[in-house]
Amino acid sequence: MKKLIVNPENPNGISVDLTAEEIEQMNTDIANEEAKATAKTESEAQAQADKEAKDVLKASAKAKLIAGEALTEDEANTIVL
To answer: What is this structure's pTM?
Structure first.
């Protein structure tokens, strides 16, 4: 792999090989970014699942209130919060 070094002595740039350390760091950075993206996706999926569960609980509480039935503690909490 190569990198381009641009400086006053080489305004058009000079292509040089990456060192083993630079290649290793690049691979580490890529792996870290992939792990972050996966964690973010999992977090977003969990947040969506939590929202859907809360919406179902609210709908159940509303239906029970309309029907005059007793609510569970979780259903009551959705109304109070």
So the answer is: 0.56
**Residue 7: strand, helix, or coil:** strand
What's the structural domain count of the chain?
1
Q: Which two tokens stand for residue 7?
A: 């400086």
What's the rounded Cα separation, in Å, for the pair 55 and 65?
15
Question: Could you tell me if 78 and 59 are in contact, meaning their C-beta atoms sit under 8 angstroms apart?
Answer: no
pLDDT tens digit sequence for 14-64: 999 999 999 999 999 999 999 999 999 999 999 999 999 999 999 999 999
Structural domain for 28, as ranges = 2-80
Q: Where are the beta strands (DSSP E) in the chain?
A: 2-7, 10-17
Distance CA 79, CA 75 (A): 7
